[in-house]
Amino acid sequence: MAQTERRLVTAHLAVFRSPDPPKVVTAAEVLLTVEAAALSGLRWWQRGKRRTAHRAAISEAERIAKAETEDWAAYYRRLRQNDPTTILAALEDAFEDNEHPAAPIDCQDGVATIVVMFDPVSAIPDRTPAVTPSGRPTLHKRTEKDRHHLYGEAMASTVLATVKETYATCQWLQDVKILVIRKDPEPFAPAGYLTAIYAGRFPAERVARIDWPRVDPVEQLVIAPDALLYRSGPQRQIIPLTLESEPELKAVVEQLRRDL
């Protein structure tokens, strides 16, 4: 498999770092910086003032260390309690460098809702690297069915990677809802510019049992609770969801259309 194709379908194998546990910040860790600021502008011969500044720096370092320790403990406590504001901010930071944009839009009672923006099928190359019988590199035209198959694998891998990163960042969430939005630069109608193409839930206990090196991402999308995924035609292409019976999802998509 070519490197580009491998990257598309292995996003879920990435390793995501969880937040460090609360740590005790000591005065010694901040004293050097605080003392340098306190002594700034004092000459070496101003010994009395330097002694006074040094004592003040020690006191200030102790205050800062205590405040930072308490702040970190409070932040960690809010994470454990699934505080909505803290969860949303933490996930926004975590998703900032994602190849496919993702955004947390809600967190209630330990359930986070994430919107993932995914490419149209045209982003999948229509040719794939191959080798001629004589061993020379070449390109083979990919069939439409193979193209849509690769597209589904890439989307599934991206969804699982987003779920994996969400739980790594916010370990005490109980469930993650995913809504995948596709932006089509050449829609048949204005409403088709932004459409939902997948929705599903990924409860923490299910995700914890995933064997990541061996998982089939597409299968996980299909068997996820409340999964919505429509395919059409012999090419099995992924088509927009019909959301008339899903008013909450429909409202999210309509709001995104207004915001863009």
Would you mind describing this structure in some detail?
- By secondary structure, the protein is α+β, with helices and mostly antiparallel strands.
- It folds into two domains: 3-13 and 82-259, no CATH class; 27-77, no CATH class.
- Helices cover 45% and strands 18% of the residues.
- It contains eight helices and eight strands; from the N terminus they run H-H-H-H-E-E-E-E-H-E-E-H-H-E-E-H.
- It has helices at residues 3-9, 27-39, 47-80, 84-95, 144-169, 204-208, 217-223, 247-259, and strands at residues 102-108, 111-118, 127-131, 137-141, 175-183, 194-201, 230-232, 237-239.
- The strands form three sheets. The chain has a four-stranded mixed sheet, with helices on both faces. The protein has a two-stranded antiparallel sheet with strand order 3-4. The chain has a two-stranded antiparallel sheet with strand order 7-8.
- Strand 3 and strand 4 form a beta hairpin.
- Helix 2 packs across helix 3 (47-80) and helix 5 (144-169) crosses helix 7 (217-223).
- The chain is elongated.
> What percentage of amino acids are in beta strands?
15-25%
Shape descriptor: elongated
Q: Report the span from N to C terminus.
A: 36 Å
Low-pLDDT segments, ≥5 res:
none
Helix/sheet category: alpha+beta
Main sheet characteristics: 4 strands, mixed
Q: Average pLDDT value?
A: 87
The portion of residues assigned to helices is 40-55%
Total count of helical runs of at least 4 residues: 8
Number of domains: 2
How is the quaternary structure best described? single chain
* E-strand count: 8
